[in-house]
Design goal:
heterodimer; A: mainly alpha; 6 helices; globular; B: mainly alpha
Chain lengths: 166, 180
């Protein structure tokens, strides 16, 4: 094998992971990937409120309301995903911290506040990067609801409703 | 729809929108390109200027915790003015300036008591949330959309605080000002 052919071959082999990484990055940078990530976060929130209701770790009326909102968000995101040919992600593994948070209502409120903040930040990021302008308003509408959940949870904790970083 | 969205409150918010975006405000300068988002951002900026004045008027009708929250929200609205002003200026635009407090006050409803003030505040915040959510699908640049999303989340929180002060759930609806 000539030196130049060997060089070309080696360069080709070296380029494979780069191409794969580029393809993977491109796949992550799609509206479908963003919707799937948001759906996973909404599933996680829904599961958390469901567990809290079962263990009386949240006041029932508030828990039912927040849980119902998450169900509606999941339904809306699934609809948006299906319209774009996306795959619905499988159920997510509950966070290990969930178990400990169910010990008391304040502990769960603190835990849920963190989850809601993470979800709002994910929506903000997704909204900034969206390719489809049609998704802007509906996703923003869900994000706004998540921000309001944070206010409700700060109320449970007896903290100022507009907390730091709010 | 919330029961507090009365005709009087809605008229007040509509008057505010007219006051903020009416013909008296100068149009964006000649710098920005068409489709840059400068026109839309200028409209939002005018609304934010009006909101600072409106929250000042709302605060005058409130006491105790409600007054403290109103003052905090005035500061947040002023921060929004600064952020949106920065976006317009970055496009080479000429950011609109606010009118005098007296000029804005003419378009506000009469706030006789705390209930009137909270109704007006609720209508105002709904209008602000809607303005930013509508902008999310229209602004061309990622940075513009990121800032619009961050402010929209804050406006939704302000709206939730108004709900709580009015004795309502913080988050009454799964989709704030719209549906998927």
């Amino acid at each position: 094998m000539s030196t130049s052919r060997r060089r070309l071959l080696l360069a080709g082999i070296a380029a494979v992971p780069l191409v794969a990484r580029t393809r993977a990055a491109r796949a992550q940078d799609t509206d479908v990937a963003r919707l799937e990530r948001l759906l996973a976060l909404e599933h996680r929130l829904g599961s958390a409120y469901e567990a809290a209701l079962r263990r009386d770790a949240i006041e029932p009326a508030l828990g039912e309301q927040l849980h119902e909102h998450e169900r509606q968000h999941v339904r809306g995101l699934e609809q948006a995903l299906r319209a774009r040919g996306g795959l619905e992600p499988r159920a997510t593994v509950p966070l290990p911290e969930l178990g400990a948070s169910l010990a008391s209502r304040p502990a769960f409120a603190r835990f849920a506040l963190g989850l809601e903040a993470e979800a709002v930040a994910a929506y903000e990021d997704a909204l900034a990067r969206l390719r489809s302008p049609r998704l802007g308003r509906p996703l923003g509408s869900i994000m706004a609801c998540g921000a309001q959940h944070g206010v409700a949870l700060r109320g449970v904790l007896g903290e100022p409703l507009l907390g730091p970083g709010a | 729809m919330r029961s507090s969205l009365t005709r009087r409150g809605a008229l007040g918010a509509a008057g505010l929108a007219l006051a903020s975006c009416g013909g008296g405000d100068p149009p964006p300068g000649g710098g920005p390109q068409p489709g840059s988002g400068a026109g839309l951002l200028s409209s939002i900026l005018a609304l934010e200027h009006a909101s600072v004045a409106a929250w000042g008027a709302i605060a005058e009708a409130l006491r105790g915790d409600a007054l403290r929250y109103a003052r905090a929200i005035v500061v947040r609205e002023e921060e929004h003015v600064t952020r949106v002003t920065g976006l317009v200026a970055a496009l080479g635009g000429d950011p609109v300036e606010g009118r005098t407090r007296e000029e804005y006050a003419r378009s506000f409803p009469r706030l006789r008591d705390e209930a009137d003030a909270l109704r007006f505040a609720g209508d105002l915040e709904q209008r602000l949330v809607r303005a930013y959510l509508d902008a999310l699908g229209l602004l061309p640049e990622e940075r513009q959309r990121r800032i619009a999303a961050e402010i929209a989340a804050q406006e939704a929180q302000d709206l939730a605080v108004v709900h709580v002060l009015a004795g309502e759930p913080a988050a009454p609806e799964p989709f704030v000002t719209g549906t998927l």
